[in-house]
Design brief:
The chain has 232 residues and is of the alpha+beta class. The protein has a single domain, classed as Glutamine Phosphoribosylpyrophosphate, subunit 1, domain 1. The protein is built from six helices and twelve strands. The radius of gyration is 17 Å and the shape is globular.
Length: 232
């Protein structure tokens, strides 16, 4: 599993890749950010660091559900050559936030290294691709075809367009459109700025998302379908 986290106040960041038997890799990524001078630890180094920090190892079988096992088997038997750059349901979870002081942050976690090829590292732990946060611009988390996201540095590319004066939605549309046209990659982003503005955009078939603001919960999965309910 891979994960990354970033603090927009001072650009501090932490990430882990190819970790196994850790219940919450994003917590380990935060420890990398707060307890080391490094940005990214991987595989054996990440495991040794987790042990040194007292992060308990979890038996692998406890992290696999029967539902997901059946889903994986189903996906492995599919042959859909018409959509070569669309990865579905790989378990990426991303979050962006802004607090009352205007500080922004992002975090992204995924089971990316367990799909298709052992040892593969995707975009999630790579700062600037799977996520980025800077108080002066905003915070973003990305999901989708990892190799495509890496090639265009999707997270930082989107925030670059924000720096150039684009709205969050415009910036997301431009960067996702560029990735689709340049490398035929599909994906999605969530982003927020210090003013509390936020946007959700994707070019894949669907993307589950939710946003909480001013006592309201906004959520959706499919394009042009958003529900708004009161938070408890």
């Amino acid at each position: 599993m891979d994960a990354s986290i970033m603090n927009g106040k001072d650009l501090s960041s932490g990430a882990v890749s190819a970790v196994r038997c850790i219940a919450n890799p994003v917590k380990l990524a935060r420890l990398v950010m707060e307890k080391t001078p490094h940005c990214l630890l991987t595989d054996r180094g990440a495991a040794e660091f987790a042990a040194a920090m007292g992060v308990p190892a979890v038996p692998g079988e406890q992290l696999v559900t029967e539902r997901n096992r059946k889903h994986l088997e189903k996906e492995q038997h599919k042959k859909d050559a018409k959509k070569p750059h669309q990865e579905k349901n790989l378990g990426t979870v991303g979050a962006v936030a802004v607090d009352s002081k205007g500080d922004v942050a992002c975090a992204t976690s995924t089971g990316g290294t367990m799909n298709k090829m052992v040892g593969r590292v995707g975009d999630t732990p790579c700062i600037g691709s799977g996520g980025y946060a800077d108080n002066d611009i905003g915070a973003i988390s990305a999901t989708g075809h990892g190799e495509s996201i890496l090639k265009v540095n999707l997270a930082r590319l989107t925030l670059f367009h924000v720096q150039q004066g684009k709205t969050l939605e415009e910036a997301a549309d431009i960067s996702l459109g560029y990735m689709k046209s340049k490398v035929k990659g599909l994906g999605g982003v969530i982003l927020v700025n210090k003013a509390g503005d936020w946007a959700v955009k994707w070019t894949s078939e669907s993307m589950p998302w939710a946003a909480a603001q001013d006592g309201k919960l906004h959520s959706g999965i499919d394009l042009h379908k958003t529900s708004i309910t009161d938070l408890p």
